[in-house]
Amino acid sequence: MKFTAEQIAGILEGTVVGDANAEVSQLAKIEEGTAGTLTFLANPKYKSYIYTTKATITIVNNDFEAEEELSTTLIKVEDAYKAFTKLLEYYNQIKLNKSGVESPSHVSVTANIGTNHYIGAFSYIGDNVTIGDNVKIFPNSYIGDNVKIGDNSIVFSGGKIYSDCVVGNNCVINSGAIIGADGFGFTPDENGEYSKVPQIGNVIIEDNVDIGAATTIDRATLGSTVIRKGVKLDNQIQIAHNVEIGKNTVIAAQTGIAGSTKIGENCQIGGQVGIVGHITIGNNVKIQAQSGIGRNIKDNEVLQGSPALAYGDYNKSYVYFKNLPKIVKTINTIEKKLDGNS
């Protein structure tokens, strides 16, 4: 799909400087721009590229003044970065603007599906499913019995939502994510053999949640595993049964959270963090990557290490740790001198 500079300026409430009929069909970095692409200049470090870019159209700030001749058409806006982000969102909406039910797919006759929906080929929609308006379910997805999905949510290809789970409005579930698989519940008998504990709860995902590719959120043993409003989860995260994650918390890839742990609001958790079960993490907590959390954490703590220490204490300790061979050598030298003087 092609857009002219005049059309783009209309979307961004900007001003065209150059050829208003210039057309673009792709986006590009300013240093990699080619004919037919649109780019932007927001960071002054990249200013030199605007004089060499082959991009057909470039979005710039209103205060930009060319010091050399330009071959690109400009669209001047108040904030080039925000304008380009807005355009990306607009482009994404167009790209994902699919509708209807593709064949082959299975949609139960008892499912209640809203308007302007899209269900891709080889998808399965179970009994008594409720799906809101403007929901997009891409091919090879599975929506189990009694699932509820709110308005404007997206399930990308290969997403799986097991029975009885609830997904709110404006949520994104990326490819390969699994919502509502059984929690890891087994009990040993006198012979050391394990029997499965039935997992009869569900997962509740509130509004405006993003779930990354291949992330898994287990259903509760009883009750619900809960992901609160505005949570953002990266790829390949494991969230165990009966966990609760507070609103607007963000978690990076490969983090694992064991069962029944409660995480507060507005937390930031780095990649490859391990969190034990049955603890409480407060609000506004920051946990650095590869940390191990084995205790309750109070509000506003910043942690690093495994087992995790207060961030400042960890850095002080690390100074000694990396110099440990020298410290040991010095101690041995002192001991030898003391022995020789005794």
From TrEMBL:
GO molecular function: UDP-3-O-[(3R)-3-hydroxyacyl]-glucosamine N-acyltransferase activity
Domain UDP-3-O-[3-hydroxymyristoyl] glucosamine N-acyltransferase non-repeat region span(s) in chain numbering: 22-89
Assembly and interaction partners: Homotrimer.
Gene: lpxD
Keywords per UniProt: Acyltransferase, Lipid A biosynthesis, Lipid biosynthesis, Lipid metabolism, Repeat, Transferase
Protein name in the entry: UDP-3-O-acylglucosamine N-acyltransferase
SUPFAM superfamilies the record matches: Trimeric LpxA-like enzymes (SSF51161)
E.C. numbers: 2.3.1.191
Domain of life: Bacteria
Pathway linked to the protein: Bacterial outer membrane biogenesis; LPS lipid A biosynthesis
